[in-house]
Amino acid sequence: MSNKLSRIYIGSICNRDLVVFEKIKKFCGKNYNISIVNLLKKGSNIFSIKYLKKQLKKYPISFIIVKLLSEEDNQEIYNAIKEIAPNIPLLNNINAVQTCESRRETFRSISLKCKKLTIPRSFYSIIEAKEACTNGTKIIIKLDKHNIPDLPKNDRIIGIAESLDQFKEITKGFKENELFFQEYLGKFDIMYKIYVIGRWMVSITSHNRLQQYENLSPLELIHIRVPIDKQLKRRILRLGRKMGLIIFGIDYVLTKEGIPYIVDINDFPSFRSIPEAVSLISDYIYNSILLQQQIYKIRASVRA
Description:
This protein is of the alpha+beta class. The protein has nine helices and twelve strands.
Protein backbone atom coordinates (compact mmCIF):
# COMPACT_ATOMS: atom_id res chain seq x y z
CA MET A 1 0.00 0.00 0.00
CA SER A 2 2.67 2.49 1.05
CA ASN A 3 4.63 1.99 -2.22
CA LYS A 4 1.73 3.47 -4.20
CA LEU A 5 1.69 6.67 -2.14
CA SER A 6 4.15 9.53 -2.54
CA ARG A 7 6.21 10.33 0.53
CA ILE A 8 4.53 12.73 2.97
CA TYR A 9 6.52 14.68 5.55
CA ILE A 10 5.10 16.00 8.77
CA GLY A 11 7.04 17.76 11.50
CA SER A 12 6.97 17.06 15.22
CA ILE A 13 7.89 19.20 18.20
CA CYS A 14 7.24 16.65 20.90
CA ASN A 15 8.88 15.81 24.23
CA ARG A 16 6.16 14.05 26.26
CA ASP A 17 4.30 10.71 26.03
CA LEU A 18 6.93 9.57 23.56
CA VAL A 19 6.12 5.83 23.84
CA VAL A 20 2.71 6.26 22.21
CA PHE A 21 4.09 8.86 19.81
CA GLU A 22 6.74 6.41 18.58
CA LYS A 23 3.96 3.92 17.79
CA ILE A 24 2.17 6.60 15.78
CA LYS A 25 5.38 7.30 13.83
CA LYS A 26 5.77 3.61 12.97
CA PHE A 27 2.12 3.20 11.98
CA CYS A 28 2.21 6.31 9.75
CA GLY A 29 5.41 5.17 8.08
CA LYS A 30 4.22 1.62 7.43
CA ASN A 31 0.65 2.32 6.32
CA TYR A 32 0.73 5.81 4.81
CA ASN A 33 4.34 6.37 3.74
CA ILE A 34 4.45 9.32 6.15
CA SER A 35 7.81 10.36 7.59
CA ILE A 36 7.63 12.26 10.85
CA VAL A 37 10.54 14.70 10.99
CA ASN A 38 11.82 15.75 14.43
CA LEU A 39 11.94 19.55 14.53
CA LEU A 40 13.78 19.53 17.85
CA LYS A 41 17.57 19.48 17.62
CA LYS A 42 18.86 15.92 17.24
CA GLY A 43 20.30 14.25 20.33
CA SER A 44 19.38 17.07 22.69
CA ASN A 45 15.62 17.66 22.39
CA ILE A 46 16.45 21.37 22.46
CA PHE A 47 14.53 23.79 20.28
CA SER A 48 16.49 25.97 17.89
CA ILE A 49 14.99 28.45 15.44
CA LYS A 50 17.97 27.89 13.16
CA TYR A 51 17.40 24.12 13.19
CA LEU A 52 13.66 24.59 12.58
CA LYS A 53 14.38 26.72 9.50
CA LYS A 54 16.90 24.12 8.28
CA GLN A 55 14.40 21.25 8.59
CA LEU A 56 11.60 23.24 6.94
CA LYS A 57 13.94 24.01 4.05
CA LYS A 58 15.10 20.40 3.76
CA TYR A 59 11.66 18.74 3.90
CA PRO A 60 8.32 19.72 2.33
CA ILE A 61 6.53 19.67 5.71
CA SER A 62 2.75 19.60 5.21
CA PHE A 63 1.65 19.23 8.83
CA ILE A 64 3.07 19.91 12.32
CA ILE A 65 2.37 18.17 15.64
CA VAL A 66 3.18 20.03 18.86
CA LYS A 67 3.11 18.00 22.10
CA LEU A 68 5.13 19.61 24.89
CA LEU A 69 5.96 19.50 28.56
CA SER A 70 5.09 22.77 30.28
CA GLU A 71 8.24 24.87 30.35
CA GLU A 72 8.96 28.60 30.22
CA ASP A 73 10.97 28.38 26.99
CA ASN A 74 7.97 26.93 25.11
CA GLN A 75 7.03 30.51 24.31
CA GLU A 76 9.98 30.62 21.92
CA ILE A 77 8.53 27.61 20.09
CA TYR A 78 5.07 29.14 19.84
CA ASN A 79 6.46 32.42 18.53
CA ALA A 80 8.69 30.65 16.00
CA ILE A 81 5.86 28.54 14.54
CA LYS A 82 3.63 31.60 14.17
CA GLU A 83 6.42 33.53 12.49
CA ILE A 84 8.24 30.91 10.40
CA ALA A 85 5.51 28.39 9.57
CA PRO A 86 2.22 30.32 9.74
CA ASN A 87 0.69 28.49 6.77
CA ILE A 88 1.52 24.91 7.80
CA PRO A 89 -1.52 23.26 9.41
CA LEU A 90 -1.22 22.07 13.02
CA LEU A 91 -2.86 19.07 14.63
CA ASN A 92 -3.99 21.25 17.55
CA ASN A 93 -4.10 25.03 17.29
CA ILE A 94 -0.94 26.55 18.79
CA ASN A 95 -2.96 28.91 20.98
CA ALA A 96 -4.92 25.96 22.33
CA VAL A 97 -1.73 24.02 23.12
CA GLN A 98 -0.40 27.03 24.99
CA THR A 99 -3.70 27.55 26.83
CA CYS A 100 -3.71 23.94 28.03
CA GLU A 101 -0.34 24.49 29.74
CA SER A 102 -2.12 26.62 32.35
CA ARG A 103 -5.09 25.39 34.39
CA ARG A 104 -6.07 29.01 35.00
CA GLU A 105 -6.20 29.83 31.29
CA THR A 106 -7.84 26.50 30.44
CA PHE A 107 -10.78 26.99 32.78
CA ARG A 108 -11.10 30.67 31.91
CA SER A 109 -11.37 29.58 28.26
CA ILE A 110 -14.06 27.00 29.09
CA SER A 111 -16.09 29.53 31.05
CA LEU A 112 -15.94 32.02 28.17
CA LYS A 113 -16.31 29.72 25.15
CA CYS A 114 -18.60 26.91 26.31
CA LYS A 115 -20.79 28.08 29.16
CA LYS A 116 -23.04 25.03 28.97
CA LEU A 117 -20.21 22.79 30.20
CA THR A 118 -20.16 22.64 33.99
CA ILE A 119 -16.90 23.29 35.83
CA PRO A 120 -16.11 23.73 39.53
CA ARG A 121 -16.22 27.34 40.69
CA SER A 122 -12.79 28.68 39.81
CA PHE A 123 -10.86 31.51 41.45
CA TYR A 124 -8.34 33.40 39.35
CA SER A 125 -6.58 35.24 42.17
CA ILE A 126 -5.45 34.34 45.66
CA ILE A 127 -7.66 37.13 47.05
CA GLU A 128 -10.78 35.58 45.48
CA ALA A 129 -9.83 32.12 46.77
CA LYS A 130 -9.15 33.39 50.31
CA GLU A 131 -12.47 35.21 50.39
CA ALA A 132 -14.35 32.09 49.28
CA CYS A 133 -12.50 29.99 51.85
CA THR A 134 -13.36 32.53 54.59
CA ASN A 135 -17.02 32.22 53.59
CA GLY A 136 -16.98 28.43 54.03
CA THR A 137 -16.02 27.13 50.58
CA LYS A 138 -13.52 24.27 50.57
CA ILE A 139 -10.74 25.07 48.11
CA ILE A 140 -8.67 22.54 46.18
CA ILE A 141 -5.26 24.02 45.38
CA LYS A 142 -3.34 22.77 42.34
CA LEU A 143 -0.19 23.76 40.53
CA ASP A 144 -1.18 25.96 37.62
CA LYS A 145 1.21 24.33 35.14
CA HIS A 146 -0.21 21.18 33.61
CA ASN A 147 2.57 18.93 32.28
CA ILE A 148 5.51 19.65 34.57
CA PRO A 149 8.66 17.62 33.72
CA ASP A 150 9.49 14.76 36.11
CA LEU A 151 6.61 15.58 38.47
CA PRO A 152 4.22 12.73 39.38
CA LYS A 153 0.57 13.53 38.67
CA ASN A 154 -0.38 13.21 42.35
CA ASP A 155 2.09 15.98 43.26
CA ARG A 156 0.30 18.46 41.02
CA ILE A 157 -2.39 18.74 43.70
CA ILE A 158 -1.04 20.79 46.61
CA GLY A 159 -3.89 20.26 49.04
CA ILE A 160 -7.47 20.97 50.13
CA ALA A 161 -8.13 23.93 52.41
CA GLU A 162 -11.20 23.82 54.65
CA SER A 163 -10.33 27.00 56.55
CA LEU A 164 -8.36 30.19 55.97
CA ASP A 165 -5.60 28.98 58.29
CA GLN A 166 -5.26 25.78 56.27
CA PHE A 167 -5.28 27.81 53.07
CA LYS A 168 -2.41 29.99 54.28
CA GLU A 169 -0.43 26.96 55.44
CA ILE A 170 -0.89 25.04 52.18
CA THR A 171 0.03 28.01 49.96
CA LYS A 172 3.02 29.06 52.06
CA GLY A 173 6.18 29.15 49.97
CA PHE A 174 4.36 29.36 46.62
CA LYS A 175 3.99 32.36 44.35
CA GLU A 176 0.42 33.25 43.38
CA ASN A 177 1.02 32.61 39.66
CA GLU A 178 2.21 29.07 40.46
CA LEU A 179 -1.18 28.03 41.85
CA PHE A 180 -4.75 27.52 40.68
CA PHE A 181 -7.78 27.49 42.97
CA GLN A 182 -11.15 25.77 42.57
CA GLU A 183 -14.06 24.82 44.75
CA TYR A 184 -13.53 21.31 46.13
CA LEU A 185 -16.50 19.18 45.07
CA GLY A 186 -15.90 16.38 47.58
CA LYS A 187 -14.68 12.79 47.35
CA PHE A 188 -15.24 10.81 44.17
CA ASP A 189 -13.97 7.24 43.97
CA ILE A 190 -14.36 7.21 40.21
CA MET A 191 -13.21 9.78 37.69
CA TYR A 192 -14.19 9.56 34.04
CA LYS A 193 -11.80 10.21 31.18
CA ILE A 194 -12.93 11.13 27.69
CA TYR A 195 -10.56 10.86 24.72
CA VAL A 196 -11.32 12.75 21.51
CA ILE A 197 -9.84 12.21 18.03
CA GLY A 198 -11.64 14.40 15.52
CA ARG A 199 -15.30 13.47 16.04
CA TRP A 200 -14.49 10.05 17.49
CA MET A 201 -14.86 9.85 21.25
CA VAL A 202 -14.56 7.22 23.97
CA SER A 203 -14.93 7.35 27.76
CA ILE A 204 -13.34 5.15 30.41
CA THR A 205 -13.42 4.97 34.20
CA SER A 206 -10.35 5.86 36.23
CA HIS A 207 -9.87 5.86 39.99
CA ASN A 208 -9.55 9.34 41.45
CA ARG A 209 -5.91 10.24 42.19
CA LEU A 210 -7.00 11.88 45.47
CA GLN A 211 -8.00 8.46 46.82
CA GLN A 212 -5.70 5.68 48.03
CA TYR A 213 -5.12 2.70 45.70
CA GLU A 214 -3.66 0.21 48.19
CA ASN A 215 -6.88 -1.71 48.84
CA LEU A 216 -8.03 -1.94 45.23
CA SER A 217 -7.98 -5.28 43.47
CA PRO A 218 -6.50 -5.68 39.96
CA LEU A 219 -10.06 -6.02 38.64
CA GLU A 220 -11.07 -2.70 40.24
CA LEU A 221 -8.12 -0.95 38.62
CA ILE A 222 -9.23 -1.96 35.10
CA HIS A 223 -10.37 0.97 32.98
CA ILE A 224 -13.96 0.18 32.00
CA ARG A 225 -15.47 1.82 28.95
CA VAL A 226 -18.72 3.66 29.62
CA PRO A 227 -21.28 5.36 27.34
CA ILE A 228 -21.15 9.14 26.89
CA ASP A 229 -24.27 11.23 27.28
CA LYS A 230 -25.21 12.67 23.86
CA GLN A 231 -25.57 16.21 25.20
CA LEU A 232 -22.18 16.04 26.94
CA LYS A 233 -20.60 14.69 23.74
CA ARG A 234 -21.98 17.60 21.67
CA ARG A 235 -20.73 20.13 24.21
CA ILE A 236 -17.24 18.63 24.36
CA LEU A 237 -16.96 18.60 20.56
CA ARG A 238 -18.12 22.22 20.52
CA LEU A 239 -15.49 23.10 23.12
CA GLY A 240 -12.81 21.45 20.98
CA ARG A 241 -13.88 23.46 17.93
CA LYS A 242 -13.96 26.75 19.84
CA MET A 243 -10.58 26.17 21.48
CA GLY A 244 -8.91 24.75 18.36
CA LEU A 245 -8.38 21.24 19.75
CA ILE A 246 -8.68 18.21 17.47
CA ILE A 247 -7.05 15.56 19.67
CA PHE A 248 -7.58 16.08 23.39
CA GLY A 249 -8.67 14.56 26.67
CA ILE A 250 -11.24 15.54 29.29
CA ASP A 251 -11.47 14.41 32.92
CA TYR A 252 -14.80 14.74 34.68
CA VAL A 253 -16.57 13.63 37.84
CA LEU A 254 -20.26 12.82 38.14
CA THR A 255 -22.24 14.25 41.07
CA LYS A 256 -25.04 12.38 42.85
CA GLU A 257 -27.47 14.46 40.80
CA GLY A 258 -25.84 13.14 37.62
CA ILE A 259 -24.16 16.43 36.69
CA PRO A 260 -20.77 16.02 34.94
CA TYR A 261 -18.16 18.51 36.19
CA ILE A 262 -15.12 19.01 33.95
CA VAL A 263 -12.01 18.98 36.18
CA ASP A 264 -9.18 18.77 33.63
CA ILE A 265 -8.34 19.16 29.94
CA ASN A 266 -5.21 17.82 28.27
CA ASP A 267 -4.16 18.57 24.71
CA PHE A 268 -3.02 15.33 23.04
CA PRO A 269 -3.12 12.95 26.06
CA SER A 270 -1.11 9.73 26.23
CA PHE A 271 -3.93 7.34 25.10
CA ARG A 272 -2.21 4.46 26.97
CA SER A 273 -5.55 2.85 27.83
CA ILE A 274 -6.96 3.22 24.30
CA PRO A 275 -5.23 0.64 22.06
CA GLU A 276 -6.97 1.73 18.84
CA ALA A 277 -5.84 5.35 19.31
CA VAL A 278 -2.59 4.85 17.36
CA SER A 279 -4.41 3.85 14.18
CA LEU A 280 -7.19 6.42 14.65
CA ILE A 281 -4.74 9.30 15.14
CA SER A 282 -2.67 8.16 12.18
CA ASP A 283 -5.81 7.88 10.02
CA TYR A 284 -6.90 11.35 11.07
CA ILE A 285 -3.51 12.88 10.20
CA TYR A 286 -3.40 11.20 6.79
CA ASN A 287 -6.99 12.10 5.88
CA SER A 288 -6.41 15.71 6.98
CA ILE A 289 -3.37 15.99 4.71
CA LEU A 290 -5.28 14.48 1.78
CA LEU A 291 -8.11 16.96 2.32
CA GLN A 292 -5.65 19.87 2.41
CA GLN A 293 -4.05 18.69 -0.85
CA GLN A 294 -7.47 18.47 -2.52
CA ILE A 295 -8.38 21.98 -1.35
CA TYR A 296 -5.04 23.30 -2.64
CA LYS A 297 -5.61 21.70 -6.07
CA ILE A 298 -9.12 23.15 -6.29
CA ARG A 299 -7.86 26.64 -5.39
CA ALA A 300 -4.98 26.32 -7.87
CA SER A 301 -7.36 25.29 -10.67
CA VAL A 302 -9.70 28.20 -9.87
CA ARG A 303 -6.79 30.69 -10.00
CA ALA A 304 -5.64 29.17 -13.30
